[in-house]
Specification:
single chain, about 375 residues, DUF4158, Mobile element protein
C-alpha cells in the first residue's frame, strides 16, 4: 500500500473525489477500499486507511474554506459577520430573518420578499464567482447556515465561518429571487381571479336589466324586418308601441352592460390599481429582467415603466405598443389619442408574467425563472 507510485495515485484519486463530491467519511472509505481492490493493492489496516481518508477529507474541506474566505475583503467580512449579531430589542439575528420565506401571495408579502432580496444584495458579494469551488461543496456549506443556530456559526473558526456565510449569501440570493417571482406570479393570478369573480357576480346582478333592454330592442327591430304586409310601418307607428326615450334608454343599457367576446373583465382588473402601485416601484427597482430575442418587446415596455416611475404625468404616448393585445387595446388607447397609464401597466405586468413562463424573459441568478 505504501509503495510508490501507487500510494501517490491513490492519494490523488481520493483527494479529487473528496474535493468534488464532499461525501461522508463512510462512503469515501468504501470507495477508497474498492479502488485499492480494483488496482490489486494490498490493503492496509482498517485504522490506517480510515485515518488517511479522514486526513484527505479534512484537507479538501479546509481548502474549500480557505478559497471562499480569501475572496472577501474587510468590508464584505464585516457585513457577513453582522448577520450573526442579534438586532436591538429583538431576539433573532439577521441570518435567521433572511432564512424565513414569505408564505402568502399578497402585496405586503411581495414587498417583504423584495426587501429581503435587496438586503442580501447589500452584503456586497453578488458579483463574486465561486466557480473554483465544486457546486456540491457550496450547497453543503450553505445548508449549514440554514440548519445551525447563529451562535454555533459564530463560534466556528474564522475561515469556516466566513465560508459558510459566503455560501449562504450566494445560495440565498438565488432562492430569494425565485421566491420573489413565485409570489409575484401568485399575486397576479390572485388579482385576475378575484377580478373575474367580481365581474361574473356583477354580470349576474345586471343580467335582468340587460335582458329587459334586449327584449325591448328585439321587439322594436322585429317590426323593421320585411313582412308580407304591403305597406311598411311608419315612424309614428313604430314609436307608438316603443317610445323614442325608451329605445334610447335600452340602447344605453345594452352598451353599458354587454361585454365584447374578448373583454376579460378588464374594468375589474383596473380597479386593483392601488394594490399594484404598492409594489410596482420596488419591483422595478429590485428585479433586473433580461430577455431573449422573443422577449425584447416586453423588456422594452418594462424599461419604459421603469423610466416613468415617480412622474405624476408622464408622456405615455411614447409607450411601446407592440405588446398590447387586442383585448387590452381599447382600454390602453383612449379615444383622445392618449394612453391610459393604469391599463398599460396592467397589460405589461400580464405580458411580463407570460414571458417569464415561456422563458422569453428571465432573471439571473435563478433556478426556476
Amino acid at each position: 500500500f505504501h509503495e510508490q507510485p501507487t500510494h501517490w495515485q491513490w492519494l490523488r484519486w481520493c483527494y479529487g473525489r473528496a474535493w468534488d463530491g464532499d461525501e461522508s467519511p463512510s462512503i469515501l472509505f468504501d470507495a477508497a477500499t474498492v479502488w485499492l481492490l480494483e488496482h490489486k493493492v494490498l490493503l492496509p489496516g482498517v485504522t490506517v486507511l480510515e485515518r488517511l481518508v479522514m486526513q484527505v477529507r479534512e484537507r479538501a474541506t479546509r481548502r474549500a474554506w480557505r478559497c471562499l474566505s480569501q475572496q472577501l475583503d474587510a468590508t464584505q467580512q464585516t457585513k457577513l459577520a453582522a448577520l450573526l449579531v442579534p438586532k436591538a430589542a429583538v431576539w433573532y439575528t439577521p441570518l435567521e430573518q433572511l432564512r424565513r420565506s414569505p408564505t402568502r401571495h399578497s402585496a405586503p408579502a411581495l414587498t417583504q420578499a423584495l426587501q429581503r432580496l435587496q438586503q442580501i444584495r447589500d452584503l456586497g458579494v453578488s458579483h463574486l464567482t465561486l466557480t473554483q469551488i465544486p457546486p456540491m461543496r457550496v450547497k453543503t456549506l450553505s445548508r449549514l447556515a440554514f440548519i445551525l443556530r447563529a451562535q454555533a456559526i459564530a463560534q466556528m473558526p474564522v475561515e469556516r465561518r466566513l465560508a459558510i456565510l459566503l455560501a449562504f449569501a450566494k445560495e440565498m440570493e438565488v432562492t430569494a429571487q425565485d421566491e420573489t417571482l413565485d409570489i409575484l406570479e401568485g399575486l397576479v393570478k390572485a388579482l385576475l381571479a378575484k377580478s373575474v369573480r367580481e365581474g361574473k357576480k356583477e354580470r349576474l346582478r345586471t343580467l335582468g336589466d340587460l335582458d329587459k333592454a334586449a327584449l325591448l330592442l328585439s321587439q322594436f327591430c322585429s317590426r323593421l324586418l320585411p313582412t308580407d304586409a304591403p305597406v311598411l310601418p311608419t315612424r309614428e307607428s313604430l314609436f307608438a308601441q316603443v317610445s323614442q326615450a325608451q329605445l334610447a334608454a335600452a340602447i344605453t343599457q345594452v352598451e353599458a352592460l354587454a361585454r365584447p367576446a374578448d373583454d376579460h373583465y378588464y374594468p375589474e382588473v383596473l380597479a386593483r390599481w392601488r394594490t399594484v402601485r404598492q409594489v410596482l416601484p420596488l419591483l422595478l427597482q429590485t428585479l433586473d429582467f433580461q430577455a431573449t430575442k422573443a422577449g425584447q418587446p416586453v423588456l422594452e415596455a418594462v424599461h419604459f415603466l421603469k423610466s416613468i416611475e415617480g412622474q405624476l404625468k408622464p408622456k405615455m404616448v411614447q409607450a411601446p405598443q407592440t405588446i398590447v393585445p387586442k383585448g387590452w387595446s381599447r382600454w390602453v388607447n383612449l379615444p383622445a389619442g392618449e394612453v391610459d397609464r393604469r391599463a398599460y401597466t396592467f397589460c405589461v405586468l400580464e405580458q411580463l408574467m407570460a414571458g417569464l413562463r415561456r422563458r422569453g424573459l428571465f432573471v439571473s441568478p435563478s433556478l426556476r425563472w
